[in-house]
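hey so i finally got around to running the thing on that chain from the lab meeting. sorry it took forever, my laptop kept dying and i had to restart like 3 times. anyway pasting the input first so we r on the same page abt which one it is
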Amino acid sequence: MSHTLYIVGTPIGNLEDVSPRALRVLREVALIASENPTRTQRLLARYDIHTPMMRFTDAYERKKKARLHAALNALEGGDVAFVSEAGMPLLADPGYELIQAALARGIEVLPIPGPTALTAALAASGLPTVPFVFLGFPPRRSEGRRKLFREFVADERTLVVYESPSRLVEALRDAWAELGERQVAVACELTKLYESIWRGPLSEAAAHYEVNGPRGEYVIVLGGTPEGGHGRTG
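ok and heres what got predicted. didnt touch it at all, straight out
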């Protein structure tokens, strides 16, 4: 009997943002493989779901192979749901190697769509949504970030990046240094208690968050370069 690996989108904050289908799958599978079981347990408790759960993340080399094999072994006995810490799995989150390994073994892989901070921020940004480029988390060091942004100096597409609160101000400075003036929307804690979106010129963004200290995870939506425009490099 062939079993299925479900990629299940879960709420990014507000636990009401989960589909009935996602809840049914989480209730019916034999196992939930979760990037963060503690976080996932809040959702399961809210909806009275008692499916067994294992931790799965490919972020740590020491345990990567063991967890991958454990998830694949579980698929030999029943369906498995894979969930990330929050949102739609694999978008700047672990899971790629698991999906690849499952497909290589002929296991059916099906998505159960759910919320993502990426599309939520992009939709509410007020900036063009088509076309856009999602860059995930930029490099941690300024040199790497600036090199990345430099590649898009003349690009008219909207750029979307994720960033942590500890690096937000520096990331905004690096974006301004390389990309020059353009509009930006900075979304914080979407669907949560302290949800906010700051919109304005990129030249003012870092200063805003120096005064209003960052909190939570951020999505930075950068407008593309104006037609014929250039960044501040050179």
